[in-house]
């Protein structure tokens, strides 16, 4: 009863997570908005982030094509049960945490830096999967650098400090694709259960099906996704590095009775 989405989702006036224009020429204002959103929400959306929309739609297209392959094709990339690596294809429906199942399949693989990439976990079908993911990884770094720069300034540090602290050029970009098929009981099942991300920051692209929820003021709220925005989550590592100034955000996802939801957090 404490977790069922139908019972625990707040309806009524819904505060919206901040939306920030990353192309704002007013640098001080931009820093202030990012710092406030990261301190008060731990989550925000960014628009005008500079990643071309076809780079994003290609990433979504090849990911969707992979998940629509027959099960045997996907299982070529399956994590073995004893694997110590997070990379590979898997399902939370098969794995019970405290007796609970979540309605999601996923694929994890590193997308940057090159020495961290292991192409055995990258789907060979569709054939454009690799190029689309490499292209996205290239663009994403510009956004990550900008965010780390602002977040550093907000701690009174030089612009490059946080990025260096989380690995500098060796900072690992781990892509997860979430695939939430239609679910007969979206009132009962969650896609991913409540959690904070283990990352420093998470940069997420969803598809057009809403489902992300954020916990705030003791309630679960739907996050209204804005088209072409990137959703940013403060993760555990940034909360710790900032001595709690920036807050790792508690979030979860709901599922849909008719539609397949997908998301691409890095
Ligand atoms: C996650 C996550 C949110 C989403 O995979 O960690 O929070 O919108 N996903 O799918
Ligand atoms: Ni998450």
From TrEMBL:
Superkingdom of the organism of origin: Eukaryota
Residue stretches making up the Fe2OG dioxygenase domain: 170-266
InterPro entries: DIOX_N, IPNS-like_FE2OG_OXY, IPNS-like_sf, Iron_ascorbate_oxido_reductase, Oxoglu/Fe-dep_dioxygenase_dom
GO biological process: flavonoid biosynthetic process; pigment biosynthetic process
Cofactor: L-ascorbate
Gene Ontology molecular-function annotations: dioxygenase activity; L-ascorbic acid binding; metal ion binding
Keywords linked to the UniProt accession: Dioxygenase, Flavonoid biosynthesis, Iron, Metal-binding, Oxidoreductase, Vitamin C
Family note: Belongs to the iron/ascorbate-dependent oxidoreductase family.
Protein name as catalogued: Flavonol synthase
